[in-house]
Design a protein that fits this description.
By secondary structure, this protein is mainly alpha-helical. Helices cover 68% and strands 4% of the residues. The chain has helices spanning 15-44, 52-64, 77-104; strands at residues 3-4, 7-8. The chain has a two-stranded antiparallel sheet. The longest helix is centred in the N-terminal third of the chain and has 30 residues, at 15-44.
Amino acid sequence: MATYRNRPAYAGGGIGTRVAVARVITAAASVVAAIIVAAIVLHLLNANPSNGIVDAIHQAGSWLTTPFHNLFSPNNGDVKMALNWGLAAVVYLIIARIIARLVVR
């Protein structure tokens, strides 16, 4: 049986556990970013907002990007949404990556 610092490999807190936690953090941020990007794409393609799926994705994206609303204010509403919400998706991914690296250390 492999050990790490005189502990069995299955003991909590080992490098394997930290890597798994880092992967969960990265996966969660990827899901969040995917929801935001899907909301942007559906908006830009003029998807029917009264459709339940479209509405749910847009509402989730709007909630996830709340701190980024009106960060940039170009005249075109589509550009404004894509810019602000796209920035939110990128920030989620960057912060998750930083946290994941800290967890693994």
